[in-house]
User: Fold this.
Amino acid sequence: MVDGPVVAVRGEAYREVAPELARFRVTASARDRDRETTLTRLAERAAAVRALLDSADVDRRETGEVQVYPLTKRSGERVVAYQGRVTTTVTVTDFTALGELMLRLADQDQIEVAGPWWSLRPDSPVYRQARHAAITDALVRAREYAEALGARVTALVELADSGLNPQPMMTRAAFTMGGAVEDGRPELDLDPQPQSVQASVEARFTISEPVLN
Assistant:
């Protein structure tokens, strides 16, 4: 049981920082009337993607989906062609050559590139900084309320985490096509989207007896 008056406050903090990760998807496709030809082309294009990624500075790549299926006429089950797709998700932390890498991949035959999507690392220190700032804000508010009453904060009674909410401002990058580079290839300039992180806490403090006039 708490003796004396108590002030309850909510502390909040907001941080807007540069992203730490960029992810994009690369999908290799193949289609032909012959199933073996479709599979061969799909394997060759997927291998070309892997070779290009092997030569690039990527932090992680994951094969997320492989699809091979027949295409039939609407009126029946007669197969008219075979379709195949292999999707790879790529994660990078060095953004300097990201646009060039995406263009090089998109320049391959029957390759689709989507993204990038920006984010923070799950263990980013930004989250810890936001939590600490939210606690500081709660304490400042409590002291301000106590001061308005002619009192002072004496002890912490309870502290509860209201949540830490990362809020990317946008899920996709805004990009512009620049002029041609020296070798004649187009240049893709990417603008990483800032990431916002919001933390909040609820706290209860005991205060000294107010001086009420």
Observations:
- The two ends are 28 Å apart (CA to CA).
- Residues 168-182 have pLDDT under 50 and may be disordered.
- The domain at 21-119 is CATH 3.30.70.2970 (Alpha-Beta Plaits).
- Residues 125-148 form the longest helix (24 residues).
